[in-house]
Known about the structure:
- By secondary structure, this protein is an alpha+beta fold.
- It has 13 helices and 26 strands.
- The strands form six sheets. Strands 4, 5, 6, 7, 8 and 13 form a six-stranded antiparallel β-sheet that branches. A six-stranded mixed β-sheet has the order 16-17-18-19-21-20, covered by helices on one side.
- β16 and β17 form a beta hairpin.
- 30% of the residues are buried.
Amino acid sequence: xxxxxxxxxxxxxxxxxxxxxxxxxxxxxxxxxxxxxxxxxxxxxxxxxxxxxxxxxxxxxxxxxxxxxxxxxxxxxxxxxxxxxxxxxxxxxxxxxxxxxxxxxxxxxxxxxxxxxxxxxxxxxxxxxxxxxxxxxxxxxxxxxxxxxxxxxxxxxxxxxxxxxxxxxxxxxxxxxxxxxxxxxxxxxxxxxxxxxxxxxxxxxxxxxxxxxxxxxxxxxxxxxxxxxxxxxxxxxxxxxxxxxxxxxxxxxxxxxxxxxxxxxxxxxxxxxxxxxxxxxxxxxxxxxxxxxxxxxxxxxxxxxxxxxxxxxxxxxxxxxxxxxxxxxxxxxxxxxxxxxxxxxxxxxxxxxxxxxxxxxxxxxxxxxxxxxxxxxxxxxxxxxxxxxxxxxxxxxxxxxxxxxxxxxxxxxxxxxxxxxxxxxxxxxxxxxxxxxxxxxxxxxxxxxxxxxxxxxxxxxxxxxxxxxxxxxxxxxxxxxxxxxxxxxxx
Length: 491
């Protein structure tokens, strides 16, 4: 399997696309005014303890207080063993006004605040440092037992040479597969220096405050998503390209030569049809090659995926038609879960199959297709109602929640792209047309909400696009346009 990573950078947002065998599999979006906080470490203050929920609210200095459950609070009296917390009350571990060192495990979602833990972990390329532990673990994705034992012994050897490291715990990441002693030792020293710096900040800062921010999306991608199958990493911004090259040279030297600055006239995402794939990923219906289709409904409680035969009538009998459609659907479902970043509880309504062997084959194929998913998944068997229940770990917002907002016209039953998203689409369209047509002025026709944002919050970016294209941009409100509609006229 060949992989390519595309990094599209503007002053408004950074977007990363993971391409496998020429097909978009995952999309990551980080906007300048809405950076994710997963992985950030804070010195927080307990604002409220709730014994009935066995949880507490923590003030991090953000818009909303964050949430921590008793199982995520270290009980230092019992050596930080999580199992002991199940029998203890939250009031025995936390009290109002207490300062607490916490790390964000889930971004704020909707009306919910961030999810926290006191089991701090800091990742590098090959290792994850766990300051409050002294154990050595190996990623479950490294299945070769000999390799797991080799990595564990190698880490113990490095620990024996470093007195400070002996008091810390480490997890060997999937990327550590086949790594040598020098690479692991370099990672360990980097993490220990970083933690020492964080500890110094913790002593001097006053709660609530942030003491450590994770890397920006472009560098996190290189740290977390790159594997031996990655052939190229294309970046379309020169400054980001330089930073990525420096990061790779220092921390991921085997990727030297794989990072390329993209300078083509055609936008990078257009070259790989990523924009079209993103638009399709916001649709409710997903068509299968056979003529069948999926219906994907995302709600706050869960996501449901319904499989239908559609226009596919098969060649033999109903059972065979059903089986083939369900088998094809497993591949589409696995891809859509990653592409849309659907998390939490997911209910799969496959077409009813009477043959139990067919049911087993469909489940096995689904599990196989999900092996390349970076998020943890758990799948149940087929229920008495013919449904398959599964859970996928959710740490960030879904693609729909990032790009869309509830539609005021239909009272939240469907969604619209936000004015911010439409503005950025307008910018990209203007840049695209500037390479195709030789004219001096563009007239943007759009809804009032979009033009208000262009003239106010995005005014700096409008000036940047004018400077980049050397064109004048004018605006005109079209009252009959919906929020997603816009036209660009050459004047």
